[in-house]
């Protein structure tokens, strides 16, 4: 450890005995990761070798800087979809950007994501990982998965699809049905069925690995390329080289915006995945420290001609299931992919594109978490609605704008939860200690000669009017002979100037009726706001109390129990 950098923490205490577990785990990670490494770049229109490069350099960077022993980083379908949208916006908006290599744009965005991670770490913004709530992410990824599925139409059918969105590509392929290469479609669907068969039945070989092996063998035997089935084609056999993308030739404002969108989605989803795996292993996940690991893991692909990455669910799951115990498993995986890049280049060249489409389609469907959607529906109808809003945003406005919709939905959800804080009049129940909500407990009785009103939430500019109206309604309905209204502020952590003005209005209304306005258990921060706003002077500092019981004893001269 140097300062707060988690250098080699994933290899801390390394023992040679760990290699007995980490080497098989690393080989398994590479076997599962190779098919997705080749397939995922197609989502963003990038050559397949970029996925292999990312799967090599990102785990090495994470092994050096990442804090976790078990998390494995790599290409991710959802991140690739946001990347594709960001790249599309850059190329479409700037005519000069069309002349820039797509790989260079992807590399620039990876560098941008890495820098956002580092900046967020310096500002201690790891809390951003919780900004996109689980329902919002589930809905957003469901929308992303549908976008990925539609994007595979051209690869399955061999027809070039010009339109974008969800419905237009489907209508376009129907109009071009005469141009469908049926052999490609049948083969792709067979590989897709094989993937689902492997999931349904206990097969030791991972489905994507089986599809790649079978596809390559059949392609070699039956000359798929000669029969009109598109294949991957030439893949550079050399190792990735260090290079800096030509940032001067790109629209930097759109690079920054695109990087921010990718950062928000990839980091948010990555930390959700990290915490999910951490709950199984007992490994504590520090979002601020993970920012360093993910930052380095994105900067490395950016410097080696690749694209942004995130925490990989599938690779991490394989690491756990095969007994990996340290980041040595990720290093073994990287070394294995280097060997594949050098020695299997000929085999990968004849890999059929429809097989990659099948892998992407299966990965997309796995992003639709039906079980979680059902769980959200059962727990909260409102949260389910916001999940649907996030899904609708990704489908209707495109993935990049869908990020904005998801963020906006999160803000609306947060505001909705806090705009109408729970409140109520409190009273006593004979023989029981404490105060009880009169509306929830029919057996509760109000305090004789006083009213105790609780607000369970902050009083800020966006809900101050609601709080003021509720308090004024309570004041109007106070029973004759009421001497005081005690505001229970124990659940109020913050009051702003607008909230102070609302309470000042209530205090004035009570003063006109000769009813004392008292506040119990007011926080120091809120007291300072009310003091500077003149509210405490209006109600009298002597009417601030440490608790409800103290207020009632002082103001009505007895314990006030019924």
What is the share of helical residues? 55-70%
Backbone shape: elongated
| Percent of sequence in beta strands | 5-15%
Q: Span from first to last CA?
A: 63 Å
Tally the helices: 23
Mean pLDDT over the residues: 88
Could you list the spans in which at least 5 consecutive residues all have pLDDT below 50?
Answer: none
Q: Please give the number of β-strands.
A: 9
- Biggest sheet, in brief? 7 strands, mixed
Rg, nearest Å: 30 Å
Oligomer: single chain
* Structural category: alpha/beta
- Our count of domains comes out at 2
Give the tags.
single chain; 562 residues; alpha/beta; Transcription Regulator spoIIAA; 7-stranded mixed β-sheet; two-stranded antiparallel ribbon; 23 helices; 59% helix; 6% strand
What does this structure look like?
- The protein has 562 residues and is α/β, with parallel strands linked by helices.
- The protein has two domains: 18-230 and 244-415, no CATH class; 422-556, STAS domain (Transcription Regulator spoIIAA), CATH 3.30.750.
- The chain has helices at 19-39, 49-65, 77-93, 102-122, 134-151, 153-157, 167-175, 182-200, 207-222, 252-281, 287-303, 313-321, 328-343, 345-349, 353-366, 370-379, 381-396, 398-419, 464-476, 497-512, 524-532, 535-539, 548-556; strands at 73-74, 310-311, 422-428, 436-437, 445-446, 450-456, 484-488, 516-520, 544-545.
- Strands 3, 4, 5, 6, 7, 8 and 9 form a seven-stranded mixed β-sheet that branches.
- Helix 4 runs antiparallel to helix 11.
- The longest helix has 30 residues, at 252-281.
- The relative contact order is 0.15.
- The model has no long low-confidence stretch (mean pLDDT 88).
- It is found in: Membrane.
- Keywords: Membrane, Transmembrane, Transmembrane helix.
- It comes from Rhizobium gallicum bv. gallicum R602sp.
- InterPro entries: SLC26A/SulP_dom, SLC26A/SulP_fam, STAS_dom, STAS_dom_sf.
